[in-house]
Write a structure and sequence with these properties.
Length: 353
């Protein structure tokens, strides 16, 4: 049904008395509040990177000039200024791979090949050290490329680990089942920020003398382990939701346990939990902002870095956070649309004879 038709409005906004009153109250609040917001956001706003003009406006309008002035630091953090074409190209390369997978623009083999090129290409562009690119340490990575890397690798690496843990929790071996349960309960019982502190500060202490692991790898590993614990419970719920008759039918066809799991049980379980898995992906994407506490300057940390040493622009942090919030919203909205497409494709595959 097309939105904003009479039937759509009646069904979604005026279906009963409570819904009608709520809709009218929200509409009245919007009419009261939106004019002033639009005036501050657009009509009285300063868009050029002119600190004097922003100061003259005296916060009567938004100072978007801070974004125009500091966007390179916000998007790329401390990455060397003259080399910032590299994180830009790396970000575009990774986004194209994500887009190709999300919109199913390529067949499966071509998509796997695209990812096999995109991830090494991203790391090569960011780190350098080959093909004439000067090396840049991971401590200088930041902004949007770091956010995308942590979120993408976090989901890609957490998914197979979560699948193994979910299967382990259904194992008939008590030791394996107990170890998987212990891992899930331990990780889910602590906040992500404590996992990041553990990976960044405590883990190097317990390593043998002279052994060192890059902080980016440690933080990425912490995010993967944290996300896998939650994803494993989502997948386990999907496995438990598959009717027992499916296993009986697979056994009647002569399929072994792992064959039945591969061809019958897992496809149904994974299709059933697509919305929950995408919720986890959205959470991982947003939770990357926590790496700021371990001195990694992703989007939110890069904004603090951009404004910390500049007295002219320091008072306009609200506009910077609104810009970052819009960036996160675009990413989360794109993932929600991708999730809806996956749900529709799964529904069509179930409906087909």
């Amino acid at each position: 049904m097309k939105p904003f038709t009479r039937d759509w409005l009646r069904r979604n906004l005026f279906s009963d008395a409570f819904s009608s009153v709520t809709t009218l109250a929200l509409l009245a609040a919007a009419l009261w509040w939106l004019p002033g917001l639009i005036d501050w956001l657009l009509l009285q706003a300063v868009f050029r990177p002119d600190a004097a003009a922003c100061e003259a406006a005296n916060h009567a309008g938004a100072c978007w000039g801070v974004v125009a002035e500091k966007y390179r630091v916000i998007l790329f953090g401390r990455y060397p200024y003259e080399e910032q074409w590299r994180p830009l190209l790396a970000t575009v390369l990774l986004l194209l791979a994500i887009l190709a997978g999300g919109m199913r623009l390529l067949p499966r083999n071509a998509l796997l090949a695209a990812w096999a090129l995109a991830l090494p290409g991203f790391l090569l562009l960011m780190g350098g050290g080959g093909f004439g690119l000067s090396p840049v340490g991971s401590d200088l990575w930041g902004g949007l490329p770091l956010t995308l890397l942590l979120a993408t690798l976090g989901m890609l690496l957490a998914l197979p680990l979560a699948l193994l843990v979910a299967l382990g929790r259904q194992s008939s071996l008590p030791l394996l089942r107990g170890l998987c349960t212990l891992y899930v309960e331990l990780v889910r019982g602590v906040p992500l920020i404590s996992v990041l502190f553990l990976a960044s500060f405590l883990f190097p202490i317990i390593l043998p003398q002279g052994t060192s692991i890059d902080v980016l790898l440690r933080v990425q590993g912490g995010i993967v382990l944290f996300a896998a614990a939650y994803l494993s419970e989502t997948i386990r719920g999907g496995l438990q939701g598959v009717p027992a008759g499916q296993r009986d039918a697979a056994a009647a066809l002569g399929l072994g346990r792992w064959q039945a799991m591969r061809w019958i049980i897992l496809p149904q379980a994974l299709r059933a939990v697509v919305p929950s898995m995408m919720n986890s992906a959205v959470s991982i994407f947003k939770d990357t902002s926590l790496v700021t506490v371990v001195s990694m300057y992703e989007l939110t940390g890069a904004l603090s870095l951009a404004l910390a040493g500049d007295a002219e622009w320091r008072s306009y942090h609200l506009e910077g956070y609104l810009f970052i919030g819009l960036t996160y919203w675009i990413g989360c909205y794109a993932m929600s649309r991708f999730s809806r497409g996956l749900e529709q494709a799964a529904s069509m595959s179930r409906a087909m004879p």
